[in-house]
Protein: MFS transporter
Amino acid sequence: MENSKSLKFQAAGATTSPTNPITPEPKTGNYRWVVCALLFFATTINYIDRQVIGLLKPTLENEFNWTETDYGNIVMVFASSYALGYIIFGNFIDRIGTKLGYTISIIIWSVAAMLHALVKSTLGFSIVRGLLGLGEAGNFPAAVKAVAEWFPKKERALATGIFNSGTSIGAVAAPILVPWILGAYGWQEAFLITGAIGFIWLLFWWFLYEIPSRHKKITPPEFAYIHSDNEPPAPENTGKLKWSRLLQIRQTWVFILGKVLTDPVWWFFLFWLPSYFATTFNLDLKKPSLHLAIVYTATTFGSIGGGYLSSYLIKRGWPVLKARKATLLCVAFAVLPIILAQYAPNIWVAVGIISLAAAAHQAWSANIFTIVSDIVPKKAVSSVVGVGGMAGSIASALFPLLVGSLLDSYKAAGNIGAGYNILFIICGFAYFVAWFVIHLLTARMKPVDL
Structure:
């Protein structure tokens, strides 16, 4: 099948040269963007399901007498399971393929999301939260691998930025949808309704997705364009890639450290921003929140804009890795103003500052995921994303312990705002540290051979 596709590609009249990548014909076909849309909606659902508990936090605190530390422990359980799920699904998807791996992932997380409605204790929430994290971890290894299978390098950051913007859309939709369901029905129904959405997406995924070499709707020119980087088409499965081999290569550590140093910041934005606005500016979380919607809408522009910027630089002739790193450095500067959030005179100034930082994080995320497909072969993309994602999730699991204990300490002293100020300073400098580490690791990087 691969050979027949390649012959069709040659017949389509594409041309190559050592210095010029294949230039697409005017009508290459656009089915790859259908795939991108599927990944976008899956990521949106993924983030709606994980965001529900943050929006219901004040209600659940009253229902189950949670402290900030209790809530931090629940978040930690989710993050720990998410870390474990990353490494499981990362290798699993490389072995069985994107289509089936994604299917199993979304079934697990959708069932877990709905099970939240049935639990009656803090321990019960920890258990179902762990199952949710395990299932949700399959989303990014599968999505990044699908992008590597369906897009050339010059378009991967943009495609990643688009599907990654689903994290933002999910975070926008949840503050509108969840309070409405809470007011109309109750907190149990909020978990049931949002959890069921994943099964609707699953129908579209199963009938619309396949790898390019087996897909009936892809045209020969589009197949040629997808593989214009002269990297062989990804096989359906490659056997097991060992951790020991992946951890020996510098490329894996670029992604690991990039995730470890920045993932906790996003999780802080995701799980504590509603509570921050409620405690600092008396925001009523029982009503749809325009303030949160604006913050998470900004992240949509950050995700797509960050992907577009590095793709634009590559099309202008920049080396791929230089374009990615230049974009990441711009992102680090954009996050820095969050240290001034403590001086915000009102909620709208705080919304503006935090919106910029959250948008910048998503621009970072779009490029750090894409770097994996730039520097490792397609057959190892999901495994490397799994290893790095696990490391980032472990860091994110530990960070809530600091957040919870810090906020409880300052809350007891009657000054919880000071605790948030410390956290914003940490967030502001995290990306510069991460960029410097990535720059050192990639200074003399050579192609990897697995």
